TrEMBL record:
Family listed: Belongs to the MDM20/NAA25 family.
PANTHER family per UniProt: N-ALPHA-ACETYLTRANSFERASE 25, NATB AUXILIARY SUBUNIT (PTHR22767:SF3), N-TERMINAL ACETYLTRANSFERASE-RELATED (PTHR22767)
Protein name: Uncharacterized protein
Residue spans of biased composition, Polar residues class: 839-852
Annotated region (Disordered), positions in chain: 820-852
GO cellular component labels: NatB complex
InterPro entries tied to this protein: NAA25_NatB_aux_su, TPR-like_helical_dom_sf
Compositional bias of kind Basic and acidic residues: 824-835
Organism per entry: Chondrus crispus (Carrageen Irish moss)
Family annotation (Gene3D superfamilies): 1.25.40.1040
Amino acid sequence: MLTRGSCSVCHQASAGPFCESRGRHGVLCLLLRLEAMKNAKKASKKAKAARMTVPVSEAESDRRLRPVLDALYNHNSRQALRHAQQALQRRPGWPAARALRACALLQSGHWAAAKEEIAEVRADLDAGRVPLDEDCARKLHMYYLEVRREEIAAELYERVWKTDQAQFQPAEIAYGLYIRGSAFTSAQKLATKLHRIASSQTPKYGMWATAALWLGLTCKSRRNRAAETSTSDAQMLKLASAMLSTALDASPTPSAEMVRFSLRVYEDGGNFDKARELVSNPRLVMDDTEKLQLRSEIKSVKGSRETDLRTLISEHDADDWINWMKFFNCVEKEENWKQRVSTLVSELRAIELASSRPKRGPFLAELELLCRLEEFENLAEAIVQFFRRFGSKTVCAHDLRPYLTAIKKTKLLEVSFDKMSALVSSGTDASHLTLAWMRLWYDRLGESEEELFQHYTRLLTEKTDKTERQAGDDYLLLIAHKLLPESLEGSSNRYADVSRVVRAILILETGLSKSPFNFHIKLLLMRLYREIGATQRMAELWQSLEIKDILVPTLIHLIMQPAFDLGHHDVSLGLLERVERLWRECDREVPECTSKAFRAGSINAAIEFVLFRKRLEGSAELAQCMIREVLHNLVIAGGEGIGVQRAFDCLSQLPRFTIDTVQVPRSLITNEDHECWRFWELHAGEQRGRMQIPDTLTEERGVLCPLVEQEAIAADLASLELLVRIAVKDFDSDRTGRSLEDTASPLKRLLDSKVISELPETTVLRMKVALNLLEAHQLLQSEKSQVLQPAPQNNALKHKKILQTAQSAVDMLLTMSQSVTRTNGKDHPTNKTDGKSAVSGSNSAPSEALHTASQLRQCGRMVFDTLLVTSMAVTSFSPELRIGKKRGKKARAKTGASMDSAGLNNVECARQVDFFVTGLESGVRSESQ
């Protein structure tokens, strides 16, 4: 007997889930019933067709699926789909062919269909309707590799291994995939199972379990390295040490790689005695110098460390300054440390004095000893003697700088300079250049620019090789310092006089023509060309540096920001391509190298690969490059749909740099190298010189970005994602994995926080525009679904407000450009100048308008991209505005037309500003050349 219920459409009383009325609701119910029956029949047919009892052989799989793989490799997704369908016709329900079909759908951009296909395959595998073999797991791994979920593929390989536990290869592949997917807990459990089964055959699986446990703790603590280790982490480190000891006991002869990794674990766990015992193992096959080096780095009994360091210095390398500093720090707080250090220094000084080529290490150690004892008179005399012996070496000035700083506040500095000046024979002596650098650092360089240029010309010679530097090149750097002295207040006043900047450029270009491979001159020229907005010349100098791809993320800050701000899209895109190529190669090759290193027993090398990949994934430079690539795609397309689609593809293909991954605790690190400016920015930060010991932890894991910079990156990513997704009408979360509201929630949090006042103005502008557009989208969606919801706070769609905000920025730019045009009405001298005239200051009158034009260009570029994407997003609403029910036909047409024209007018206005400022900049630069 049928029970009474309610209709799922009209909610009227009925005998079943659908009502029996003959009205409109009855027809809808009938259609729903037919649709449900059709879907059930289709699902039943698909379930029957998906059943397979016998797996496909390797030979048949290779024969039938090879065309699919070749088509995917050639990015021919349509042909791959056709070949996959043909294979499924021969073998209905074949999971490997269905996985490749999902890869083809993914490659063609049908993310939702690919996700649904894989979900069906996984459901069939879990239900046992199709068999799971290694070939099937391999094809599914291809899909999960594209969506960056390799830990799921590892689960499949582990299931394959459980069917035949005698074959360890699938389990080893699964372990490598767990590590690559950062599923360290699962990797540890799998390695522990392997160790229990094969502990009598090989001890490597015990090391694998320890490595997974240690990596899980290390990568978790990377985000907040300043925090103390929790109790649970300390217990896990003890467990890792115990597991490691068990694995080492089973190994008859520990390898060097195994020992290096073991020292990491023991030191993190505080087991310094075990670490020292391991390095002292007579069975260890390792060089004696490396043994001593490793023992000296272990924090154990100070007497033993002192012995090891003394042996390293006296018997292996007396010029290794890091070992000298470790020796000082080791014995400084002990009794009679002065006598012990003095004895060692005296012995080594006597040996070096008898040598034909003495090393600097013992003499520098004497300076360090006198500086720590604060015997400044003896220190001043030792500085003079060190200059007499090593003043001709280029590094001598940097060696002496921390000790000259120690006597800076006394009269001994002037006395030391006078004595060193007496030791210099003439301007052609190499020690004269060393003394000039030291005088510059302490504002005591009395020679004029003309005298320094004469020293340079006297040292010029044609005998040097083209790749070598001229002996007097540093005199040109000294001239640049004299023309543009560094101020302690900041660098804004340093480049205020554009005529002096151009004179310095002319002098350095003269030196570069004689020494085309001098990278110091090239770096300084790039810095000066940046001040006048000559990005094209900067790009030429950047190309001539021939920087390797692996170093691009550390030095890209030299050119990326000015090229992006000044609108040189060709230069910026070339840099972005190099960074993206490095990231993709590392993302493809580093995980494979990690797996191979584990299988080969190189545990420490595998750990280095994992940490390198983690550091690359958390790189702030890579996130910023992705933001700029999105903006470039929007700007270059000039408002067309293809540019928005490319920007959306860029955001969806790199999901690791989304707002979700840049949250507290902060994880973004910076890899920028600013040490290359030490010869130019002399007073930037504390100059400790050779007294500084490198921080191993900083070198290995990078430096955390400042909080404001991380917030700005996160806000830019979320704002651009909202703007682009609204523009392309991608409102679901199939491709990005996040809804619009999830992406907008951190932006709302930032707007209410105190950090908002420290963020860049363009970042705040993008945030407000994105949130306004999201409100407009939500209101439109509510109107279309006929659901009454409370209106936004300002009770308006805010379209006009958005466009007015962007229009006011454009009006400001136009006003500034007109004022600059009036300022540049006068002619400027165009006579050519040579090096001497540049030094003396004659014929050097490029106006301040050049500097103003480059500032205007930068300001216009910053507003242009935001204005463009806003106009495109607002214009995309016009079709939806036309279908509103409460508007009349004429009103709908008028509203849509006005929105279209407003958006397109703003796009055109942004283009005009961009082109106008570009022409203005090139015109002013041509006048000043």
